[in-house]
């Protein structure tokens, strides 16, 4: 099995976030967490108890959260601004654009419960726009980890990054993927599985269903699908994309985001401008009022699932 | 009244054929006192973590800031010949590409949050530096100001001083008619600030007011500076069209004459 184990017991990536930050903050008092009444939902209670002088509570005021975080970062603090992704990247977008990115204040924006993690709470709480809006803003790195290894690595890298980073975290327990590529760096996609018949390029919590779809295709039909965790949406790993597109086989992108402006369109744009005309599909949330349901029900509804992705693969092959 | 600064503001706006004339003339006396008397900041200590910080929330009156920074020696004044020109660093809002500027501003309602974050950092590290920010009365309807005002008093930021350049006019009319924010003193007091009024063109009064900071221990300080938009040039004073009006050659000469002669 390629999926080695699912670290279900208390290992949502937010817990990995909290634990990793605690281990770093022990040795670095410049690490600060700024929250918008999101201490609980961000799993930051233990961090706040251990490091009361390294957590700044702003209350429910996302614009101010980001502005204050930028001010703190301008004095050399290593600031993680934590808020639900839906509010952080929509309500505070102007602060992200001006106070963080344009002003070169290296805030680490942590969008929690991203995508459709909030499930039946509905569209107000979904962030299906964040890749799209942030991709158009100069000077921000966008990262959506696929497993707990990537999450931990991303936090460590972000802590030391002297540039703005957006970390997109979901809510549910995350796996540890047994990947071909065992290192992690921003801007370099991670090959989870090789395969010569087609390539599945996924990001964040959609990497696991993509991998399961690849396994299903292999077991049921002998189809060899490569799977890439494209954890960094910007800067996108064009080199890796080119390498996998060079065989001319179909490419399917998968993301927990609107079909517009995310990973899929970023890949399509590169391929088209590079003269690579692979058959190509984007599996994502369509431009409609999102169906009511849990995250997994919404995923299944829109085909972001083992079965859904495998079906698209068979169609396109 | 800061006559030489006013002449330079007009000179470079006239040359650039762009700029926020009225507001630069209303806030320049405040900047004069802050940079030349109150704040511990200059080119010699700008890289020091202990310098006082100035963050201009009403970024559009950048001409006043640039003129004062040039005078302080942050950059040669002749750089301002390129104001708003192709490829110049001297754009129409504060940018860190210009030596001496703390934060990139321009969109309204951002300066106070940036200042609050900077002031919290000083408190966390037991540092003595102070943070000053200049707000426009026209930008106060931005809700982010009030979010930041709450945080400032919540964290007892008596190392923070906000100044409102209260000239009573904004781009489409009197602030009282566009969106009345008065009574500002009662509002900020209710938000936990210590508030004082001052004549924003009386240098001595400004000097004494800033010398009294913090107004109360444990509270952020608010200075409501009563100013006149276009101050110093009779035909510009309190005239809406000079929000970002650029003088003609004749008007420029007339203004310089009123201010005591061309530079």
UniProtKB/TrEMBL annotation, chain A:
Alphabetically ordered keywords of this record: Thiamine pyrophosphate
A Pfam match: Transketolase_C
Cofactor(s) this protein requires: thiamine diphosphate
Record keyword Manganese present: no
Residue ranges constituting the Transketolase-like pyrimidine-binding domain according to the UniProt record: 11-176
PANTHER family, A to Z: PYRUVATE DEHYDROGENASE E1 COMPONENT (PTHR43825), TRANSKETOLASE-LIKE PYRIMIDINE-BINDING DOMAIN-CONTAINING PROTEIN (PTHR43825:SF1)
Name of the protein in question: Transketolase
Organism: Persicitalea jodogahamensis
């Amino acid at each position: 099995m390629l999926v080695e184990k699912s670290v279900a017991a208390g290992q949502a990536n937010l817990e990995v976030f909290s634990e990793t930050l605690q281990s770093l903050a022990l040795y670095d008092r410049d690490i600060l967490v700024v929250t918008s009444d999101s201490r609980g939902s961000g799993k930051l209670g233990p961090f706040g108890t251990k490091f009361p002088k390294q957590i700044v509570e702003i209350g429910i005021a996302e614009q101010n959260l980001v502005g204050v975080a930028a001010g703190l970062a301008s004095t050399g603090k290593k600031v993680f601004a934590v808020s639900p992704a839906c509010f952080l990247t929509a309500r505070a977008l102007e602060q992200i654009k001006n106070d963080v990115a344009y002003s070169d204040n290296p805030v680490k924006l942590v969008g929690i419960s991203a995508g459709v993690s909030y499930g039946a709470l509905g569209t107000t709480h979904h962030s299906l726009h964040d890749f799209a809006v942030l991709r158009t803003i100069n000077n921000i790195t966008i990262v959506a980890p696929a497993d707990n290894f990537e999450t931990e690595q991303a936090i460590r890298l972000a802590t030391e990054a002297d540039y703005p980073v957006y970390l997109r975290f979901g809510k549910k327990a995350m796996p540890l993927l047994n990947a071909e590529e065992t290192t992690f760096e921003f801007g370099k996609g991670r090959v989870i599985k090789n395969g010569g018949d087609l390539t599945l390029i996924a990001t964040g919590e959609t990497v696991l269903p993509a991998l399961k779809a690849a396994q299903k295709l292999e077991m049921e039909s002998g189809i060899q699908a490569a799977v890439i965790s494209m954890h960094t949406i910007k800067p996108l790993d064009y080199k890796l994309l080119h390498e996998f597109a060079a065989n001319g086989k179909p490419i399917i992108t998968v993301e927990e985001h609107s079909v517009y402006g995310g990973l899929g369109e970023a890949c399509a744009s590169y391929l088209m401008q590079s003269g690579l005309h692979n058959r190509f599909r984007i599996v994502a949330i369509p431009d409609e009022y999102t169906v009511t349901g849990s995250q997994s029900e919404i995923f299944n509804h829109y085909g972001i699932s083992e079965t859904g992705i495998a079906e698209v693969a068979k169609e396109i092959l | 009244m800061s006559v030489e600064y006013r002449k330079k503001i007009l000179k470079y706006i006239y040359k650039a054929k762009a700029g926020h004339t009225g507001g630069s003339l209303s806030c320049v006396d405040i900047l004069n006192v802050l940079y030349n008397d109150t704040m511990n900041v200059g080119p010699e200590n700008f890289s020091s973590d202990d310098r006082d910080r100035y963050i201009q929330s009403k970024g559009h009156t950048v001409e006043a800031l640039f003129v004062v920074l040039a005078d302080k020696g942050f950059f040669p004044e002749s750089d301002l010949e390129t104001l708003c020109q192709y490829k110049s660093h001297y754009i129409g809002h504060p940018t860190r590409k210009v030596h001496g500027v703390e934060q990139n501003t321009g969109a309204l309602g951002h300066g106070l949050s940036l200042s609050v974050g900077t002031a919290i950092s000083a408190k966390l590290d037991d540092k003595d530096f102070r943070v000053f920010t200049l707000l426009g009365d026209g930008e106060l309807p931005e809700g982010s100001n009030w979010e930041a005002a709450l945080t400032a008093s919540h964290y007892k930021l008596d190392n923070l001083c906000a100044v409102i350049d209260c000239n009573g006019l904004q781009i489409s009319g009197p602030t009282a008619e566009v969106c009345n924010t008065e009574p500002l003193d009662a509002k900020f007091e209710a938000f936990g600030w210590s508030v004082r009024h001052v004549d924003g063109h009386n240098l001595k009064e400004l000097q004494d007011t800033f010398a009294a900071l913090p107004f109360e221990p444990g509270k952020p300080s608010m200075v409501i500076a009563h100013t006149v938009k276009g101050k110093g040039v009779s035909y510009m004073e309190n005239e809406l069209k000079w929000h970002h009006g650029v003088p003609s050659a004749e008007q420029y000469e007339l203004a310089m004459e009123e201010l005591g002669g061309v530079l």
